[in-house]
Amino acid sequence: MSAAGAGAGVEAGFSSEELLSLRFPLHRACRDGDLATLCSLLQQTPHAHLTSEDSFYGWTPVHWAAHFGKLECLVQLVRAGATLNVSTTRYAQTPAHIAAFGGHPQCLVWLIQAGANINKPDCEGETPIHKAARSGSLECISALVANGAHIDNPKKSIRVLDWLFERHSTRPLFQRAFAVDVV
Q1: Domain of residue 122, residue span
Q2: Are residues 74 and 139 in the same domain?
């Protein structure tokens, strides 16, 4: 889903795209992967804007970079002081949740290496591995498992592997990727 159709609708006569440009330029630069604009904005924007949640998804700029797979933007934001484990107010999702759901293993691996908590549950009790399973991203699941993600969460009634197999018919892919026999 694009930011333009995300549901904030129109505020004060502005289109969603105009609103994103005017009120959330850091977020837009992260969505577009516009590193030059992002770096320029980071030099002139107060630190508090790094934690500013947009009116579309309730995401910070780091969440936008993670969702859209913009690794260079993610790196610049963290260098500028953005927090790796910042949770959204609405759903308590971290950038790792968003990168996993977006199917961006390069961002997820970087977040993990930078110290992101990969076992932190969101408001539904789902961790990043649940989001990766939901989106069917074997690369993200593999990265999470290799870095100590808990496969099963006792607070969730469905096992990650069952979810992955049931929703995405990925049992054969998983068996090849992890060299295991899954019944």
Answers
A1: 108-183
A2: no
Distance CA 120, CA 9 (A): 31
Within the chain, which residues score under 70 in pLDDT?
Answer: 1-13, 152-183
Same structural domain for residues 132 and 167?
A: yes
What is the predicted pLDDT for the residue at 150? 86
Q: What is the dihedral of CA 11, 14, 15, 17, to 10 degrees?
A: -100
The number of angstroms, rounded, from the C-alpha of 73 to the middle of its chain's C-alpha atoms is 13
Into how many domains does the chain fold?
2
Same domain for 9 and 70? yes
User: Does some domain include residue 95?
Assistant: no
96 within some domain: no
pLDDT tens-digit profile of 7-16? 444 455 678 8
Q: What is the pLDDT of residue 73?
A: 99
Residue 51 CB: number of other CB atoms within 10 A?
Answer: 13
User: Hey, what's the torsion of the CAs at 120, 125, 130, 132, to 10 degrees?
Assistant: -60
Distance between CA atoms of 7 and 20, rounded to whole angstroms? 12
